[in-house]
Each structure stands twice: as C-alpha cells, then as structure tokens.
Specification:
The protein is 43% helix and 23% strand. It has ten helices and twelve strands. It folds into three domains: 2-120, PAS domain (Beta-Lactamase, 2-Layer Sandwich), CATH 3.30.450; 125-196; 205-351, Histidine kinase-like ATPase, C-terminal domain (Heat Shock Protein 90, 2-Layer Sandwich). It starts with a helix and ends with a strand. It is elongated, with a radius of gyration of 26 Å. The chain is an alpha+beta fold. A five-stranded antiparallel sheet has the order 2-1-5-4-3. The protein has helices spanning 2-18, 37-43, 47-50, 55-59, 69-76, 122-157, 166-196, 209-225, 246-262, 319-329; strands at 22-27, 32-35, 80-88, 94-105, 111-120, 205-206, 230-234, 243-244, 269-277, 280-287, 333-339, 343-351. It binds adenosine-5'-diphosphate. Adenosine-5'-diphosphate is lined by residues 255, 259-260, 263, 287, 289-292, 300, 305-307, 310, 315-321, 344.
Length: 354
C-alpha cells in the first residue's frame, strides 16, 4: 500500500512538473505550497523563493487587489475557466495571461486551498491587436474609394457627362443601388471595427433598461406581425442600474431582435428577458426559429460569417460582430445557445460597475 502511495506521489510530481502550463497550489491562507516548472519559467521566480508566500505577493496579478479569482471561485463554489488577466514577473515585467482556477473545499465546506493554472497570452494579445488594427485600417481605406465612385456615378446619372440612353440609365441605376449597399456595408464595418479597436469613446450613463426594451419591442412589432410572430417581454419590476452607452446598447438589442425576427419560423414566439444576478445584468433574446448547427455556432460572432443554408435572408454578417464588439467594450460578454430547427437564445451580460 505504502509502495503504491509512493508511486502515486511520484506520478503526481512528474505530472505537475511536466505540465505545459504554469501551475500553483495554495493553502487556505492563500500561501503557495506548490509551484511548477512552467510557473517558474513564466514568472522567473524559483519555487524555493515563493513557497509559503501569499500568492498575491508573488504574482501581483491585475485581479489580486480587486477580485481574487480564488476567493471568487470559493464564493461561487465553481471553477473559473479561461479568463484573461495579467501578472508581474519577478522583475516587474507585466505579462498577459489566460488562467483557470478552482478552490478546494474542506470537509466543513470551507475553502481549504486552491489551484490555479495559467499560460502566457502575449502572442495571442499581439495578434489580437494586429487583427483589430488591420480591420480598422482596411475599413477606413475602403470608405474613400467607394464614396468617390458613388459621387461620380450620381453625376453620370444626373446627365452631367452628357445625355444617357434608357439602357445606360438603367444599368447605372443598378450600379448605384449596389454602390449604396456597398457604402452602407463599409460604413457599418468601419463603425464596428472602431468600437472593437477602442476608437469610439462610449458615453456612459445610467440605463433605464425597462423603458428601452419596451420601446424597442414596440418598434419591432410591425415587422414581427408580417410573420405572425408574438414578442413577449419578461423582466422583474425593478432591474439593477447599469451604466451604458445607450445608443450603442440599443444597437445591440435591435440587432438581436432583428435577427430573431429574420430567422424565426412563422407563427412562433420571441421572448426578450432581462434579469439581475450578482454583479451583472443579463439580457436574453430567445426565438423558436431555424436555429444554428453545432458546426456554425462558434463562428456566428465573427465578421461576415453567414450561414450558407439560410443565406437567402438579406444581411451583412456584421450584426453579431457589432453586438460582441459593443458588449465587450462595456466590459461584458455575449454567447449563444442554439439547436438546429428548434431555435436560439442569445445572451448578453453587462457588469453593474466597471
Ligand atoms: P446577418 O446580417 O447575416 O444576420 P449577423 O452577424 O447578425 O449577420 O448574424 C450572422 C449569422 O448568424 C446569420 O447570417 C445567421 O446565419 C446566424 N444567426 C444570427 N442570429 C440568428 C438567429 N436568431 N437564429 C438563427 N441564426 C442566426
């Protein structure tokens, strides 16, 4: 038995040492009792130097002071997975990380320690910044040629370059229609990429969610009635106050409602639900429409992603990218649950304070 325990112990040591992610374990006082080789490599601290020290003292993570993930995990009694933060190395260099942590509860149900794993996200962060800049510059550079071409086209149509035959007029009108579409496309794209790149300053003010949701739904009822859709509102009498940029958030809810109507089956229901929980306000837009397959689900918030089978419906593939960019700019998050042919639920989560 003892021999077996020894082998298990060795196996545990080997496993911890060879993990390709940084890992540390703390006791109930948040003092470090384990620190693996990758944690040493990422932070430049030696295991001997950190054992017995408070984890916040060693890692000085961006979250240590405000909301210790280990304490939060203990409070919520669940693991925190794949969150972003940053930490300081021994030499004070800040590195972005992606971390997960879980708390270990003792027999009395009180936290008896915890475990946190983390990996370096420097490259990911760099790529993310490059991607945002690239998109923003690309959208900006597209704008000028498209609007100049549109201007010349309108002049031609006004006969400023001489009289046109009926056929020429017809062709130019068709080109103008498509150019206008392209212009609005580029305009939207530029807008979304600016929010995403943080180039649009949000004007935050307390949000009267109930009133805004009521008004938005009233505006969408006509469109919904064309497909015999019923829209229901579901929220408590009093919702917590959150500070948001109202124009941008209205755009978020409008995009979600517009999609719910567009992708709903006739004669079905759409529910717009809002509630407060913990430090967040949640909004859900649920429909009983075409749904989204597992294959497409991870990509629907990407730029220009449109699902082929239902490509006949008009759209740009920018709506959900805008939703995500705006909600994330508010420090929130968005996600979707959906089942093909059954319907979809889009959720947004906005923090009460940032
Ligand atoms: P689009 O302008 O094409 O609607 P979005 O970015 O708003 O662009 O949505 C991206 C894609 O996600 C859509 O083309 C559609 O295939 C899918 N989608 C969005 N909302 C829903 C929904 N409520 N039900 C089913 N599919 C949806």
């Amino acid at each position: 038995m003892q021999e077996q325990d020894k082998t298990k112990g060795k196996l545990y040591d080997l496993l911890v040492a060879s993990l390709p992610v940084g890992l540390f374990v703390v006791d109930e006082k948040l003092e470090i009792i384990e620190f693996n080789a990758e944690a040493e490599r990422l932070t430049d601290w030696n295991k001997d130097e950190v054992i017995g020290k408070q984890c916040s003292e060693v890692l000085q993570s961006s979250l240590c002071a405000s909301k210790c993930p280990l304490k939060e995990s203990a409070q919520q009694q669940k693991s925190i997975l794949g969150e972003k933060a940053s930490l300081l190395t021994k030499w004070g260099e800040e590195i972005p990380i992606i971390f997960s942590c879980s708390v270990l509860l003792g027999e009395d149900g009180k936290p008896a320690g915890g475990i946190e794993t983390f990996r370096d996200a420097t490259v990911l962060k760099k790529l993310e910044v490059q991607r945002k800049n690239f998109i923003s510059v690309f959208a900006h550079d597209l704008k000028a040629p498209v609007s100049i071409a549109g201007g010349f086209l309108r002049r031609l149509l006004q006969g400023k370059a001489g009289p046109l035959t009926e056929k020429q007029q017809y062709y130019l009108q068709m080109i103008e229609k498509e150019t206008l579409r392209l212009e609005s496309y580029v305009h939207n794209f530029l807008d979304v990429s600016r929010v995403e790149a943080g180039q649009i300053q949000l004007s935050l003010a307390p949000w009267n969610i109930e009133k805004v949701l009521d008004e938005l739904v009233a505006g969408f009822r006509v469109k919904a009635s064309e497909k015999d859709l019923a829209i229901y509102l579901d929220f408590p009498e009093k919702l917590p106050i959150v500070s948001v940029d109202e124009i941008q958030m209205e755009r978020v809810i409008s995009n979600l409602l517009d999609n719910a109507i567009k992708y709903s089956s006739p004669n079905s229901e759409i529910v717009l639900r809002a509630w407060g929980e913990g430090d967040f306000v949640f909004i859900e837009v649920r429909d009983q429409g075409v749904g989204i397959s597992k294959h497409d689900l991870p990509y629907v918030f990407e730029y220009f992603y449109r699902i082929r089978e239902i490509g006949q419906t008009s759209g740009t593939g920018l709506g959900l990218a805008a939703v995500r960019a705006i909600v994330e700019a508010h420090g929130g998050s968005v996600w979707v649950k959906s089942e093909k042919d059954k319907g979809s639920s889009f959720y947004i989560k906005i923090p009460k304070s940032r």
